[in-house]
Amino acid sequence: MLTPLLDIEGATENYELAKARAVNSAYVSPVRRVLATVERFSADTRQPARLELVLAALAMRAPNLAMNTRNLELCALRKFCECMLQRQSLAKLRGEHIVPWQVVPENLAAPEWAIETTWQEFADLHAALKETNASELLRKGLVIGCGAMQRNALRSGLGPDPGVILEICGIKNAWPVVNARRKPKRNWEKIGRQELEALLEELRSSKENFGIETLKGRCADISGISKLLASACWLTGMRGSEVFSCRILVAASSTTVGAAEKSEMLRDPIGAHRAGKLKELDESCMADYSELRRKVVEASALASVPPMILIKTVKTACSARNIDNRLRVQILEGISPDDLEVLCLASQLRHAELTPFRIEILVKSCSKKIKRASLQAFPGRRDPVTLHYFRHAFADAARRILPIQQVAALTGHTSRKTAHGYGGKFVRRSSSAKSTRWLPKHDPALAEAIERAWSTQLVLGREFDEPKPAMPGF
C-alpha cells in the first residue's frame, strides 16, 4: 500500500514540506502515466478527455503490465481520489470553499482537464475505483483493445494492428499472446532471393512506393513498410530501426575524382564523407521517387565511384574502446537497379520525422506482419521469419565467403563472440565458396580497426580462429 498523501498545508506549518513532497512522489508517477494515457485514448476515440476515462485508461494498460505495476497504478489512483476528497471534507469543517485544482499536488503536473473537474466527478471515480480490481481491469482492457484495433482497421483498411494499442497506452512491451515462451533456435535457416520474393508476395500492399507517404499520418501502410524493411534488411543486414536513419552517399559533383581520390574514397569512406568528398542525398524526394535512383546512378557514373549507404549504428556498446562503430558504410558495388531503388526509398524514411517510440512501434508491428506472412508462405519452415531474421541471413551468407572481421564491419559488430553468434552455428568460411546472393563491400578502414583490436585480445590464452572442417571419417 502507498503511504497516504500528507496534508501539504499542515506539513508547511510543521516545517515538513520536504517530507510531504517525498511521500507524494510515491504515487505521482503512476497517476501521471494514467492521465497521459487518457489524453492518448481520447485522441484516438475523438472524444474530450474526462476524469471518467481513467478507468478506461487503466484497462487499456492492464493487459500489457505486470501484476505488481497494475496494482500500483490502481492503488495510486485510489489514494489520489481519497486524499482529494479528504481535503474537501477538511475544508468544509473549516468553513472554506475550495475547488479541486487548489489541492492538486504540486509535483503532479496534471493536465488542465484533470484539474478543471468537479468534486462530484472525483467522488464518482473514487466509488468506481473501490469496486474495481486488477482482474476486472484485465478483462475490460482486452475488450477495449480489440475495439480500438477494429476502429483502426476500419479507418485504415489494413487490418487490426496491436501496435496501435501500445502507442495509445504508451507501453513498449508486446501485446500478450498465448504460449509466448519461445523454443530455442538450434540453427538459423538460410533465406535466399526466392524465399524473400515469396514472402513479399504475401505482404500485399495497395500503396505505391511501399506506402512511405502514409507515415506522416496516424494510420501507416504496415504491409508496404514491412516490404520495404524486409528488403532493406535482407540486402544490407541492418537492424530494423537503423533503416529509418540510413543515407545514400555519392561522390560530390564538385570533386575531381581521379585514381587517387577514388582509391581514398573506397579505402576510408567515413573519412571521405567527413572531408566532403562524399555527399548525402539530403533533399527530400517524398513527392517524386522516380528521380531518386536516376540521381544516384548519374552521380556514380560521373565519378566512377559506386554508391554507398551510410548507417547509424543503434547499438554502440563496443567491446574494444579504440573501435568507433557509431557510423558504418557499405559499398553498393554491383547492386542491381531494382535493389538500388529499394535502398534509395529506404533512405527517405528519415524525412518522415518519426519519434524513436513511433519507430519502435513500427518495427515491432512490421516484424509481426512479416512473421504472419512467413507462416503462410513457408508452412513447413522450422522457425518463422521475423525482421531480425534477415540480419542473421545476411551474416550467414557473408561468413561463408568473408573473414569474420569484414563481416563485423558490414554488420556493425565489435565483439568477436557476437559476430560469430550471427548466422548459422556451424557456418565455416571457405576460399572456394561462391556467394549465392549479392553482398555489399565492407569498409576497409573499419575492418582494419576491428582486426587490430581483435589481434590484441586473447581468448583462453590463444587466438580465436574460425572452426575447421571435420576430417573425413571423424
Explain what the structure shows.
The radius of gyration is 28 Å and the shape is elongated. It starts with 7 loop residues before the first helix and ends in a 19-residue tail after the last helix. The longest helix has 29 residues, at 17-45. The chain has helices spanning 8-13, 17-45, 54-61, 67-94, 112-115, 119-130, 134-156, 162-169, 193-202, 222-236, 259-267, 269-274, 290-303, 337-346, 356-377, 387-399, 404-411, 416-421, 444-455; strands at residues 247-251, 278-280, 308-312, 327-331. The chain is built from 19 helices and 4 strands. A 4-stranded antiparallel beta sheet has the order 2-1-3-4. The relative contact order is 0.09. It is mainly α and 474 residues long. Helix 2 (17-45) packs across helix 3 (54-61) and helix 8 (162-169) packs antiparallel against helix 15.
Structural class: mainly alpha
Q: How many DSSP-defined strands? A: 4
**Poorly predicted spans:** 1-15, 458-474
Strand order of the largest sheet: 2-1-3-4
End-to-end span in angstroms?
Answer: 65 Å
What's the pLDDT, averaged over the residues? 79
Radius of gyration: 28 Å
Q: Based on Cα principal axes, name the global outline.
A: elongated
Q: Give the number of helices.
A: 19
Question: Which sheet architecture does the biggest sheet show?
Answer: 4 strands, antiparallel
**Share of residues in helices:** 40-55%
β-strand amount: under 5%
